[in-house]
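retry 2 of 3: previous attempt timed out while embedding iron/sulfur cluster. Reduced batch size to 1 and resubmitted. Inputs unchanged:
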Amino acid sequence: MATTDNRLVANGNDNLSAEVKTTTCYMCACRCGIRVHLRDGAIRYIDGNPEHPINKGVICAKGASGIMKQTSPARLTQPLRRRAGAERGAGEFEPISWDEAFRILEERLAKIRTTDPKKFALFTGRDQMQALTGLFARQFGTPNYAAHGGFCSVNMAAGMIYTIGGSFWEFGGPDLERAKLFVMLGTAEDHHSNPLKIAISKFKRAGGRFVSVNPVRTGYSAIADEWVPIRPGTDGAFLMALTCELISQGLYDRDFVARYTNGGQLVIVDPKSPRFGLLAVDEDADPVNPLYPQNQLWWDRHSNGPVITHTPNTDPNLFGDFTLTDGTRVQPAFQLLADRVRTHTPEWAESITGVPAATIRRLAHEMGITARDQKIELPIAWTDCWGNEHQTVTGNPVAFHAMRGLAAHSNGFQTVRSLAILMSLLGTIDRPGGFRHKAPFPRAIPPSAKTPTGPEGVQPNTPLAGLALGWPGSPEDLFVDEEGGPVRIDKAFSWEYPLSVHGLMHNVITNAWRADPYALDTLMIFMSNMAWNSTMNTVEVRKMLNDRVSGGETEGESEGETEGETRGEYKIPFLVVCDAFHSEMTAFADLVLPDTTYLERHDVMSMLDRPISEFDGPMDAVRVPVLPPTGECKPFQEVLIELGSRLKLPAFVDASGARKYVDYPDFIVRHETEPGSGIGFLAGWRGADGEKSMLGEPNPGQWEMYAANNCIFKHEMPPSYRYMRNWNRGYMEWAQRVRLRRWGDPILIHLYSEVLQRFRLAAQGKWPGRRPPERLAKRVETYFDPLPFYYLPLEVQATDVEKYPLAAITQRPMAMYHSWDSQNAWLRQIHAHNYLFINPRTARAQAIEDGAWLWIESQWGRVRCMGRHSEAVEPGTVWTWNAIGKQSGAWALAPDANEARKGFLLNHLIADELPALDGRISNSDPITGQAGWYDVRVRIYPAGVEEEKSVFPIFPVLKAVPGMRSVPRKWLAYFAGKEIGE
Ligand code: SF4
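retry 2 succeeded.
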C-alpha cells in the first residue's frame, strides 16, 4: 500500500536526499499537522504544517521534540516473553518472534472465547483508536473493555452530555472568536494545547477578558486577566452561588431557558404520586419518539393552563405551583432549580470555596450583563425543530472551558452539571461567542448507545450483545445480574457507578486481584502505565500484579498452561502489555508487544471514535508513516487485525471464515459499520473515485487522497446548520441523512434530570423496574439528585481534616502531555524533577524552607520530596507536576536520574478504595465512577536534617530489556545545556 506524500527537496548534493513528509502529530491529542524533514531517511527536524487548518504551522515544544521520542533509548523493539521462573516486575525477558507471540495469544484467547469471553479484558490508555479497540472487544464478546476516560475526565463528558448533549475538548468548546468574556475552570496547561493557545491569543488581542478559576496559577491561569484561587473540589459550590445570583438578579436569558431547556416543563411534586419527580406528560398526546418523548407539559402564561410543550403561540411559566385537572400538583423545573439554589448564596459559597462573596457576586454580574448587553446577531436564517423560522442567530458572548480540575473529584458529576446549567442560564449553548458543539455532537440525552443489560449478553463464541460502553437512561439499562451485581470486572454500569460511561480502568487490577466480581484470565493493557502514574494506590497495586494464589488455585488458571510453569499462580494469570517504551508497566508483563511510534504507522482519528471535528463541520484525520518501523515493532492496530482474523471474529473474516483484510490500512478503507452502509472509519474521499464524503462506498485510493490533503478531511456545513444544533431542523435532517444522528428530535437542555430521578425512585423503592441492592440504596438515593447539589468529596468525608488539612493536587506541564515524555531527551530538560509547591504562608507555618526536603503525608501513606514556596497557589492547597517522578531505570533513564532521585509521584498518597459500610468502595464518583484523583487531604512537615536527601519511597532499579537500543547517554544526561557531572 502506498503511504505518504513524499516531496523530494532538491539540495544540490547527489549524495544526500532531503525529503519533507507530512503527517499528524501525536505528541499530544490535538492532531496538529506536521512536516517531518528527513535527510537520507533519518529525521532532521519536525515543524508545523502551515497548510494545516488546525495549527496553521504552529508547533509546540512537544511537537518539535517528536524526534527524541523516535530515538528514545526506552524503545521496545521486539516481542518479549517473561523468562520462565522469573518474577513479574524483575524485568527478565526473552525475545520471541511475532509468530510465537501471536501463537500464544491466539491459543489463549481462543480458549477464553469458547468458554467465558469476559475472562479477557482489554483496557487502553490515551489512544486515538477506540473505535477499533472497542470493535475488537465487542467482536470477541467481552464486556471488559474501556479506555482511559474513567480515570481521566468522564465527569466532564457525562455531566455535560447528560445536561446539554455535548461537552468540552473533542466534543465542543468555547467560541473565542466571538466571545467577550472567557471563564476557564480547572484546566491543565497541556490540555487542548496549540488550538486553545492560538484561540486565547487572538481573544486577548481582540480585547476579551479572561478569568481563570483554579487553585494554582500556572499555564493558562498565568496569562488570565484575573485569577480566582479556589479550594479543590469546591467548584460546585462556586457555580451554584453564581447561579443563585443570576436567578435572584434576573440576569438569566429567560427566552432561551423557556424555549430550549426543560426549565418550563412541569415536574410532579406530589410525594404520594408514583411518578413523583418525573415530568408530567399528556398521555393522550403523541410522544413522537417514545425514546425521547415530546408530550411533556408547560403551564402556559397566556391561557393559564397546561399545554403540550412547544405548542405554537404559548409561553411557559418558569415559576409557580400548579394543579393539573386530575389533581396532580406540579411545578416548572426552573422553579425547583431556583428553590434549590436560593440558599446557595455567595456568602454560603465563600466559606466552602475560599472565594470572597463579593468576587462571586461581581463575576455573576459580569457574566449576566455581558450575556445580556453585548449580544451578537449573525445574519443567518435557520428553522427550529418546531417549524419556527429565525432570521438571525443570536449569541450571548460568555464562553467557558473546563476540564479535569472540576471532573476528577467524587463530586465532579454534579459539579459539571452545575456548570452546564450556568452556561445554559446565560443562553450560551451552541451560540456564537458561547459554547459550540463539534460533530457528531450534540447527542440525544442520553445518547442511544447501550450495553447489554444482563449477563446473558455475554456468550461463548459470540459478539457482545450490545456495546461495552453505553449511556443508561434508566435502571433497566444497567449491566447487572439478577441480584443487581456487576457483570463487568470494573463494575461499570452497576448500581455502584450507574452512569460510568467510560468504564473504570482504575478499578480493574484491584478487582481482578480480589476476584471481585470474578477473576480474569488475561488482561491486555495498551499504552497505559497501570504500575505507576495511571494507578492510584501505586505501592499496593504493584504488589497485586505480582501476587499469587496460595496453592496455585486461581480461578483463571487454565489447563494447558504452557508458557511458563509459574504463570498460572498469579492472581491475574496472564498480563499482556503493548507499548512503544519500556516502562514500570511493561516490567510486570508476561508478554510484551512492541508498538510503533506515531511516525511509523497508519492511524485514523475517526468520527466513530472520540470526535475531532471543528465547530463549523465534521473533520477527521490520519497519520501516514514517515519512517519504517523500528526493529520488529508492530502497530497495535495491526496486532488487533491479525488477532481478529486468527480468532475469526465476524468483523474480520468473510462468510467462509477466511481473513478479510490484508492489514490495517486495508481494514480502514474497506470496513463499513454495516454491509453497504457507506460509513467507515474515514468520512473523506469516499465512493469508488473519492468523489463522495460523509457517506459512500469504500475508495481504494482513500489513504493517498488524505495524504495529498495534509492528512485531514473537513466538511464545511452551510452557515444555517452551524448553530443552535440541539434544536435546528435543517441540521438535524442533514445529520440524519449522513448518519451522524439516529434521531431528529430536539435536544432540550436538562436543567432538571429526569434520568437521575429514575434512579433515585428506584433507590426509594418507587420505580416499577429494577432496584438497587439494599446496601447501595441510600447511596443512589443521595447522589442521584435530579438537580445539581454540592457535597464534600467522598474521600474528604472519610478524612480527619484537622489532621490532614491541605488539599494535594497535580497539574500537567505544558511541555509534556499526560505522562508520556520523561523519556524525551529534550523535554526532560524542562522538567527533570518536580517539587511540591506550597504557599509561603502555609510553608512557614510548618517551618518548611524554600527548597527544603519535606514529608507529605495522607492517611494512606507518605512521600519525601522537595518543596518550593510559591505565591501561585492558594494557601489550602499544595501541588506538583504529574508523572515526572519515575521508578529508577524506567524509560531507560540512568538509575540515578533526577526523575528517580528527586522526582516523586503523588499517586503513592492516593487511595483507590475508601472504607464503606460493607468494607470498601472505589474512590470514585458515585454516579460515573470517575477516579477522585484530587480529593486526597494531606499534611506536610520538614524532613529531619539527618535524613537522606532523596525521595521516598524508592523502588528497585528497573532492568533494561532485550532489544533496547543503546544511544549516546549524553542525549539523556544533558540538563539545560550542561552535561550533568561536568
Ligand atoms: S499541540 Fe499537540 S498535536 Fe499540536 S504540535 Fe503540540 S504536541 Fe503536537
